[in-house]
Every structure is written in C-alpha cells, then in structure tokens.
Write a structure and sequence with these properties.
By secondary structure, this protein is an all-alpha fold. It contains three helices and no strands. The radius of gyration is 22 Å and the shape is elongated. The chain starts with a helix and ends in a 13-residue tail after the last helix.
C-alpha cells in the first residue's frame, strides 16, 4: 500500500473522540458540596471507599 493510501485508510477508520458524563444528585446544599470538595478534613472523610482511608489531603 502506498503511503498516501495508508494515511487515507487510517483517517477513515479513526473514531471521533468519546465523552463520558456522569451526574449524581446529592441531597446537600451547594455550600456543603463545595466545602466537601475544598476542605482537606472533609475530603478525608469521603474520598476513599471503606476500608481504605485517606490519611492526607491538600487543596
């Protein structure tokens, strides 16, 4: 296969970029959610699944 034909074949088979969007509804005020994401002591409480523990967090 010639180089120019190879480029055309590769471009034709290249898929478009994919996007994954996740949404979760949380029963908390925007202020509490913001605090949970921006205060290291709060991040340590929820960031890791049990039994793993987040022992240090920096923002």
């Amino acid at each position: 296969m010639q180089d120019s034909n190879r480029k055309d074949a590769m471009n034709a088979a290249t898929p478009a970029p994919l996007t994954l969007s996740l949404t979760r509804h949380i029963k908390a005020s925007p202020e509490r959610v913001f605090a949970a994401w921006t205060q290291p002591e709060l991040i340590k409480q929820w960031f890791s699944p049990k039994p793993v523990e987040t022992v240090e967090a920096h923002v």
